[in-house]
Amino acid sequence: MSDPSDPNTTTSDPPLTLKIHHRNTPHEFTLPSTSTLTDLTTLISSTLHIPPMNQKLLISPSPGTLKHPFPPTPLVEILPLNSPRLKLTLLGTPTKDIDTLNAQSTAQKTLAEARHRAHALYGAKPTRTGTSASTSRIHTLSSTDSSNYTFHRLLPLPHLPNPNKSLTFLERLRADPGIKSAMQKHKFSVPLLTEMDPAEHTTSESRTLGLNRNKGEVIELRLRTDAYDGYRDYRTIRKTLCHELAHCVFSEHDRDFWDLTAQIEKEVERGDWTKSGRTVADQEFYNPGDWEGVRENGLVVDEEGWTGGEFVLGGQGRGGGRAESRREVLAKAAEERMKRAREREGEGQS
């Protein structure tokens, strides 16, 4: 900085040119030699659109770190301008990025609120203390009216895209001749059939395909692909539904459960008159070995039938914890088996 009392100096010093690094990118700023630290942060704000209150300057060598509020100290006094090791680093987020993050946060909050409302509205209620086992097992009804043996309510998740398309898919399952036949045979009466939110049942290791709450109070099915941009193979979902219907009787994946699952699958195939007279003997059905053999691919039908406890629709567990069991089941194998069956059917018709 020039000294006016010194006759050998000029009346003005050359401007200051500073290189400041932000997000690994250097930016040059030119200021008058008399500029202050406040002037510099104001220039940064107008150029990089980072408000002074969001700025933090790392100055090496000393003075180190400076942050808001910045004092109006002359730069020539606070910066080691003559040091060959001088480096200025700026930490701070541009206003545009902050606005984007706020918008994403608002969108996520809106989505979470929509899920909460859906869960609060449609979540199954815990069984009251003292309620007998016969009244809590609501998957069957004693009435002889066959219209009771169905899914009484269908629910697409309102916070997911195109809920009407999911409702159409659920209606197709309820109206499926094979499903209707099997449910009437076993007198299954399920109050609610709904879709599963893939995001809530997908991890880096597995994807759950279906859940049965309280032995048939609520059945959830993964209808959509993980990216929400499409729907899974109908016959695979129907097989998963057979699996979940078997949980209306047996919770554990034991021999009785697998026998009933295979029986329901065969009954569904036999009852499906849309298959043009194809016999049951021509069909292939999954068994525990099939699912166990391919479980490493990550598609899990379910952990086991969940009963009792307090939960909300789409939740991850039940009150009092969830019993650990082997991860069985994979739709990928089922899809391959169905693909081979369709290929054989095509060859037979050619």
Walk me through this protein's architecture.
The chain is α/β, with parallel strands linked by helices and 350 residues long. Among the domains are: 15-92, Roll (Ubiquitin-like (UB roll)), CATH 3.10.20.90; 151-272, 3-Layer(aba) Sandwich (Collagenase (Catalytic Domain)). 36% of the residues lie in helices and 13% in strands. The termini are far apart.
Q: Which spans have pLDDT < 50 for at least 5 consecutive residues? A: 7-11, 124-144, 276-298, 306-330
* CATH fold-type name of the domain at 151-272: Collagenase (Catalytic Domain)
Strand order of the largest sheet: 2-1-5-3-4
C-alpha Rg (nearest Å): 33 Å
Distance between the termini: 95 Å
Mean pLDDT: 74
What is the succession of H and E elements?
EEHEEHEHHEHHEEEEHHHEH
What portion of residues is helical?
A: 25-40%
> How much strand content do the residues show?
5-15%
CATH architecture identity of the domain at 151-272:
3-Layer(aba) Sandwich
User: Which class of the domain at 151-272 in CATH terms?
Assistant: Alpha Beta
GO molecular function, one term: proteasome binding
InterPro entries: Ubiquitin-like_domsf (IPR029071), WLM_dom (IPR013536)
Domain WLM: 142-339
Pfam families: WLM
